[in-house]
């Protein structure tokens, strides 16, 4: 799969930042556990990790290992049973409910099922994300076409989701997640519904977004992609973090 | 941008649930009509009380020429008897109760009679002798009728003691009961209005779960997410209130003023100004209904 290899880019040597421009980790889990139902086994079990600004992180593990739960905790769709979650320097356990929307404006999110609005055009779907947070019209009219261009959908603004391929629909979803230029992008199995070739295109796009300085956390099943990208890999097993490896591959035993 | 967007979302919501919206309008219309009717009846009762209780009198009818009453066996009340009654009414024992005493002689009664029934052919044959003299007593407290009645009933020269309130009271009682019934129906209808609005908002929220899910995800504020639903309920309820006000206005204009006021004339009727007085109340109740329903529903279905 030579065309995938092209994705692998050399990792720049990590430079030690000077103390005065040190930034807090973008995401930090402090001994986080999540138990959904009383008595059930924890969906996350004492997870302790940090994700730095600008990183690209794969979250891997079998189905039910807690990947989606991890992402929902970052979005504050769920709250931890124990431990604390910090996002962009804020402790989510002390974040009041009315500030949650502000938190979410700093996080883009993409899912396996795209979650597009079927009766809105591509342009409207992306514009929707800005309209509902009250952005002015002129801002929308310039930002949305730029973003669509960035994700490779230039010229398809007037299409509706059902007139697009799966890969194109996921690009619309990514455009919507990224249109407000959030510092964090979460992707929950974004290639789960796509064929391998299309998946590569989506990965290339996420990589490009990551290079603009956006921190990307992607949960996935797709071992080939993980193996090819050589990024940081965090592996969960029954809610426990069993591996945290920079430039890792999907299965630790391979 | 914001406003325009909210309005377009609102339009989509209203159109998508058109039949539900119409039923919300109708049920608020009917329930608020009952609320309004109860209110108007109460206004009517108050107005009648105000108008009548000030003027209400106890009448001590003195024996006329011919009477079946045993106290009138000796014929027409004599001047002595009349004076004795007058003295007692002015006396110390009755002073705390009596506010004013007015003596209507047979001639006064005749004059009043002729004036009142001037146009009637049958009034012409009536003479002063066929009428009777009376004392009209205004009481300090209209409820204390019994005191006067106890003193003068059965006395020689007094045919009968009559309290005008006995004529009015049943009417007020009927109106009060009607007002209670209307209030009861209003309560039931208001409950069903709340349930219906709740259901409508819930359906609307569920039919737009996709949109609201994305809104939450990209960080739209709660108010922004919920406002279209709230407005949907509030607009439907307000239209219902407006219809109720219109209905009550027509009711008062055509039923009360044009019809009742012509056929039963002695009652001081309410006018359409009473409708305008309670209109803000009805709109307030409508908005309250919608607000309660929104808060109850939305906190559950569109939570962050
Ligand atoms: N909303 C929920 N209510 C109860 N249990 C849940 C819920 N979401 C996930 N779980 C459970 O938590 C565990 C982890 O699920 P999830 O985070 O979705 O894993 P993954 O995304 O890795 O497949 C699973 O056992 C799942 O059944
Ligand atoms: Mg999952």
Automatic annotation (TrEMBL), chain B:
Transmembrane intervals: 21-43, 180-203, 223-256, 276-298
Family in the record: Belongs to the ABC-4 integral membrane protein family. FtsX subfamily.
Keyword line: Cell cycle, Cell division, Cell membrane, Membrane, Transmembrane, Transmembrane helix
Protein name: Cell division protein FtsX
Pfam families hit by this protein: FtsX (PF02687), FtsX_ECD (PF18075)
Compartments where located: Cell membrane
Annotated InterPro entries: ABC3_permease_C (IPR003838), FtsX (IPR004513), FtsX_actino (IPR047929), FtsX_ECD (IPR040690)
Quaternary structure annotation from Swiss-Prot or TrEMBL: Forms a membrane-associated complex with FtsE.
The keyword Cell division is assigned to this record: yes
GO cellular component term of the entry, any: plasma membrane
PANTHER family per UniProt: CELL DIVISION PROTEIN FTSX (PTHR47755)
Gene3D superfamilies named among the record's database cross-references: 3.30.70.3040
Function: Part of the ABC transporter FtsEX involved in cellular division.
Species, as recorded: Actinotalea ferrariae CF5-4
Gene Ontology biological process: cell division
Domain ABC3 transporter permease C-terminal, residue spans: 185-302
Residues annotated as domain FtsX extracellular: 56-161
